[in-house]
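To start, an entry.
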Amino acid sequence: MRKTFFHSLPMIMAAMMMVACSNEDATALTGDNTQQSRTWQVSINAGPATTRAISVGGNNGQTLYTNWDANDAVEVVKDVASVGTLNADVSAGNSAYATLKGTLEGTFSVGDNVTLCYHTAALDYTGQVGTLAGVSTNKSYLTATSTVKSVDGSGGFLSMSDAAFTAEQAYLDLSFTKGDNPISITRLDIWADGGKLVKTKAIDGTTTYATEAEPLTITPASATDRLFIALRDENNAANNYHFKATEENNVIYTYEGSKNLLLGKFYKGTVTMAAISHALSAAVVGEVVGTNGLAYDVAYKDNLPTGVSAAGMVAYKSGSSCLVIALADESSAMDWDTANGTNGAAAHMPTVTGQTWKVPSRAEWELMFSANGGNAESYAGLNTAITNAGGTALQGDNGYWSSTEHTPGSGAYIVTLSGGSASWASGKESDLDERVRACFAFGVVAATGHALSESVVGEVVGTDGLAYALADKDNLPVTAAGMVAYKNGSSGLVIALYDDGEMNWNTANGTSGAAAHKITVTGQTWRLPSQVEWNNMFEANGGNAGSYTGLNTAITAAGGTALQGDDKNYWSSTEYDAGNAAYLVNLSGGSTNWPNSNESNVWRVRACLAF
């Protein structure tokens, strides 16, 4: 049957019914009432179009006319068995009417009812392509009942009552949008609450129904925002329907809502969808990242699009940039050089479209810890998020490499995980095999540095000897080494981001003390600050040489570790009694004071460099 749309009002719904054109009394039964088994000649009237149309709003509505094509096939069923096929004769020239002609096999008696099924008795709503022609040709199932009025046993003719056809499904003409914008759909999955949305139904009544795991799928030949669909919901009442649409860029959208999609009715409307997958720039921490480079709500981690597998989890987000951590470790521990080479984290599988796996830096590890639990010294929250995303937790009582070197070419930082806490140790790059968990950074453009002579207090100093804006501290092309703590014209002081432990004054001032600070800076030499330099740094960060709180605030803002208070002492390079005693800066309760100490005593060391 052909189906043609006529448009005027934007529309919703209409009833479909096919009734007989004859005014004969369908209950008048005559002739031989003896059952006989043989081949029977049959002719049944069906039509006309004026009562076989789907319409709403009269002449001003949208109407779906159903017309017969010559030789349209109608399967005939009696007692749950096919007894033959009739074909439409429209030779009268009016396709609104048809005479169904052909032969039937079996035993018939006056009063027997048969079911006429256009185009087959078995229903199959799978394989829809979303076009009107596809629905009309393959998915428009109509049924009618016809009664044997008389049996001519000698001539082999059955006289049958006229056929009044009705549709076995609802017809939908749907447009799909995200807000006001159309969605170019490449796949639409449909299921309904109650489990009665039919996928297939055999002639004996055996039925398969659409579920979330096995939905009814519409697959257009090319991406489109408009789909024609045939649906049969055997609840035949208001129901909660689920639509999941895959856009041509693999972004997934969903809709859930109550609709009254009754059999035999026609519905036209717009479905506004909500996205469940999106670009990484719009991701949030905890979401799953697929091999297609898109982020998905973690609730859909086990139901990603065909051909897409989960590869990572969004572990940190800042603006449109983010860090994604892999869902599993590399298969074996390895040395630092291997981990950072082409056979290490960069070779992690599965790959992610448009991204490159790498070893996280120390700063990136701390950002991921902080974003999942609020504490850079705890890995428990990150592990919870990884397992929620379907991944394997980081292994406790193990160390993981960072890409950050404390001594370029020989030593790098290792994050040690134990009992929920994360701490930092140093390791020789070529001698130690540690575990590797890959990550990649999205939307991050490396910051641009400038000469120290052009720096300002509070900026971060990289291992390349350049200063970077504080806002770029997590986006450096190199490792952060210090912070500009004092500036006077084009000269100034840089304080190291971490202590170097405790040692006596002679060691602190020697080649194995502050000068050996683990993170080297190109063109610069670390050393102990003098008493004057300590005071300059205190004053430049809070305006008061008698307080260390401002300097600590600036150091931690730059990603470093604060100076230790609680009556802790740090060496200065200034001697009180040459060869015997030197000045200490004592930090306690936010205040500073300057005692002296025998140079053989052991106190804390924080390096600085002057430029």
In short: Residues 2-31, 48-62 have pLDDT under 50 and may be disordered. Residues 171-277 form a domain with the Immunoglobulin-like fold (CATH 2.60.40). The two ends are 88 Å apart (CA to CA). The first helix runs from residue 132 to 139.
